[in-house]
Amino acid sequence: MMGTELNKRWILTNSQQRDNGSQLLALTAFQDERIVAHWLLPDGQCRENAIAVTAGAFPSLTPVLPQVSWDEREIHDLFGYIPNGHPDLRPLVRTPRWPDAFYPLRSKFEQPIPWLDVEPDNGDQRVTGEGVTIMKVGPTHAGVIESGHFVFSIMGENILHLDLHLFQNHRGVEGHLEGRRLAEVAPLVSRICGADTVSHQVNWASAVEKLAGHTIDQPLAWRRVALLESERILSHLNDLAQIPAGVGFHVAHQQALAMKEKWQRGMHSLFGHRLLFDTVGPGTAAFFDPDALGRLIHDVRRDWQSWRALVLGHHGFQDRMLGVGIVRQADAARLGAQGVVARASGLSFDARSVMPLYQEWKVKPAGEVSGDVAARFKVRLEEVETSWRLLQDVIFEVAKMPLPSFWQPPEDLAGDAVAYTESPHGLNAHVVSLKNGQVVRYHVRSGTFRNWPLLTKAVTGNAVGDFPLINKSFELCYSCSDR
Questions:
Q1: Which residues constitute the domain of residue 79?
Q2: 26-67 confidence digits (pLDDT tens)
Q3: Residue-by-residue DSSP string for 411-436
Q4: Which of 95, 165, 312, 454 is the most exposed place for a label (fewest CB within 10 A)?
Q5: Which pLDDT band, with edges at 50, 70 and 90, does 362 fall under?
Q6: Do 409 and 317 fall into the same domain?
Q7: Measured between alpha carbons, how far is residue 264 from residues 150, 293, 298, 319 in Å?
Q8: Cα–Cα distance between 219 and 266 in angstroms, integer?
C-alpha cells in the first residue's frame, strides 16, 4: 500500500475507534521508528494501531483527534519524530537549553549533556491588544506544591487565555527505566507520583503478569482493589479539602484535612506507607488486617458525615461553586477528559467498569452534567462513598479467604503489553516492552496528562479570583506530567 493510503488509513482507523466509543490508552513512540495507538474498547479488550515513521515523520492525528495534541508534541520533543499536520508544534517538554540534536528517548547521548547557555523558558502564547495584561504565576508557588508556570492573558478581572508551561522538573523516568531488570522497575514506577502511585504499581504488575501468562488469584485481586480504593479515598479527601480553601471556607478546609490525615495515618499503619509506595508488585500486594481497615473506615466516616452536612448545607459555599469553571461536554469529549473532570461534564466512562480486577464488583460511576466546580465537588463526594462501600465488601471477602499464593515472574520475560487502571485522576495506562527480562520501552500516560488542557478551557471567561477555586477543583498532579 502506498504511503499516502497508509497515512489515510492510520487517521481513519483511529478516528473510527474514537467514534465507536473506545478510549485512547496511549499514543506511544518507539526507537525503531514506530508510532502505536492503543485503544480500550467498550468491552474491555485492547486494540492497537501502528504506523511507521518515514523520513523522520508520521501523519498527525491531532486535526481529527485533538486529545493527542500533547502526546504528539511530547513525541516530537523526546524522539524528534515530526507529526506532519500538527497545528501547534510548540515545545512541550523541550527547553531552549537542549542541544539541537538532543532527543533523550531516541538514542543514547554523551554525558554530561552540553546544555546551551541561554534562558530556559519557552516563548508563551498570549492575547495581544489594547487593555490586555499579562500575568505570570510560577513556576515557584507560595504553597508547598510542585512547579508549574501559568501565563494569563487578562482584561480587567477576566481571563482571556491561559498558557500552561508544565514539565518544569521533568525527571526522565521513562529513560531511566530503559535497560532495567524486572526487580529494579517497581521502586521507580511506585514513585512516579504520590497521588496515583497504587494505580501505577498495579499497571506495572499487570503488564508483567500478562506477558508471563499468569492469572492472579482472587485473594490477591481483592487486596489490590483495597489498595486502589484506599488511594482513591486519600486523593479525594485531599481534593475535597482544597476546594473550600479556594474560597476561604477554612473550617471546612481544616476539618477535611484532619480527615485526610487520619486516613493517611491509617494507611501507614495498615500498609506500611503514608503514600502507599511499594505496596504492589508482580504477583504481590501488601497484606493488611481487614478488621483494622474496617475500624478505620468506621472512625473516619463519623467525621465524614458531619463534614458532608456542613459543606452541603452551606448555601454561600454551594452558590460560590455554581457556574464557575465550566468544562462543556463537547470539549471534554473532544480533548479526552478523564476521571472526575469527565464524569462531572456528562461523560460516564469509568475504567473500573471493564477492569478484570473489578469483575466481582459492579461500580456505578458517579456523574453530573453541569461541568462546573460544583459538579466536580459532588462527583468526588459520591466517589468517596462508593469507595467506602467497595472497601467494606472487600473486607468481608478478604477476612474469609486464604492468603494469596506466591508467584515469581521469569527472569527472561519478553514481549509487549499495555495495562490500565482507573486512578484517582482518571484512566492511567502503561505501555511496556521487555526483552530478556529488561525494559526496552516504558511509556506512561496518566489521567492528569489528559486533563491539563481542559483546565485552560475551564478558566477562560472566568475572573482571575476564580482561578484558585477552579484549579483546586481539578487538583491535577504535576509529577505524572514531570515523570
A1: 3-122
A2: 999 999 999 999 999 998 999 999 999 999 999 999 999 999
A3: TT--EEEEEEEEETTEEEEEEEEEET
A4: 312
A5: confident
A6: yes
A7: 30, 12, 15, 31
A8: 21
Residue with cell 506512561: 444
Which residues have a Cβ under 8 Å from the Cβ of 353 and sit 6 or more positions away? 363, 365
168 in any annotated domain:
no
Domain end (from 107, 122, 137): 122
| Rounded average pLDDT over 95-107 | 90
Whether residue 483 contacts residue 193, with contact meaning beta carbons closer than 8 Å, is answered with: yes
- 79 and 197 belong to one structural domain: no
Residues 6+ apart with CB under 8 A from 239: 380, 472, 473, 475
Give DSSP secondary structure letters for 439-458. Answer: EEEEEEE-HHHHHHHHHHHH
- What nine digits make up the cell of 256? 477535611
Regarding whether 115 and 214 lie in a shared domain, the answer is: no
First to last CA, the chain: 38
Could you tell me if 345 and 429 are in contact, meaning their C-beta atoms sit under 8 angstroms apart? no
Strands 82-84, 57-59: parallel, antiparallel or unpaired by DSSP?
A: parallel
**Count of the separate structural domains present in the chain:** 2
